[in-house]
Design brief:
nine-stranded mixed β-sheet; 5 helices; 198 residues; three-stranded mixed β-sheet; 12 strands; 34% strand; alpha/beta; globular; Rossmann fold
């Protein structure tokens, strides 16, 4: 198994450390050639607008979109979830944000507030046929999932004021979280994703 780490912007290093724990071979992805022979690609947190613009600049956007249409395995966290989404709430022609459309979801950027409003919280992981468990989430300028399409599974929720919000979703072999499991030393989502493509 060879896993790529989109390494144009964002904290791909933290994901690399988690994957090292699973003894998975990794490759930094900065050009279309780096996509060859990959088993999957991790899209880290960071700044989603900058990430999409850099993918355009380095001719990665269309190769990634082609893979998204072919059920190529992606794993995204925070900005990575935004980049994988089908649409962004409130976007317009003047909003220069490209997405891959790998997940039939709509997201709202920075929905939990600015950097100063970042927080950590327990989220409920509810995998099919398994006993629900709690995992630790780090929310930094996190996006909110505001629509989930019919083909998308919700695997984890964050509950606040009695309202449950999806925070981990899966469609085919693509998994994404609105928070940063890699910053909390949380490895279970990486394991779930790797199991789905091994």
């Amino acid at each position: 198994m060879l896993i790529g780490l989109l390494a144009l912007q964002g904290d791909y290093v933290s994901h690399s450390r988690v994957l090292d724990e699973f003894s998975v071979e990794t490759r930094l992805v900065r050009s279309p050639d780096d996509l060859e022979n990959l088993s999957g690609l991790v899209i880290p947190g960071g700044e989603s607008t900058v990430m999409s613009r850099l993918c355009e600049r380095y001719a990665l956007l269309e190769p990634l979109r082609l893979r998204a249409r072919d059920d190529f395995p992606f794993f995204g966290t925070c900005a990575g979830l935004i980049f994988l989404a089908q649409s962004i709430a409130g976007s317009s022609r003047n909003f220069a944000q490209q997405t891959l459309g790998a997940l039939d979801i709509e997201v709202q950027r920075n929905a939990y507030g600015a950097q100063i409003s970042s927080f950590e919280a327990a989220v409920s992981l509810e995998m099919p046929t398994q006993i629900p468990e709690t995992i630790h989430g780090v929310f930094i300028r996190a996006p909110r999932i505001v629509r989930v399409g019919e083909g998308v599974e919700t695997l984890a929720f964050h509950e606040e004021n009695g309202e449950k919000t999806p925070v981990v979703v899966r469609q085919g072999r693509t998994l994404a979280a609105s928070f940063h499991p890699e910053l909390a030393g949380e490895t279970r989502l990486h394991q779930i994703w790797l199991d789905s493509i091994s």
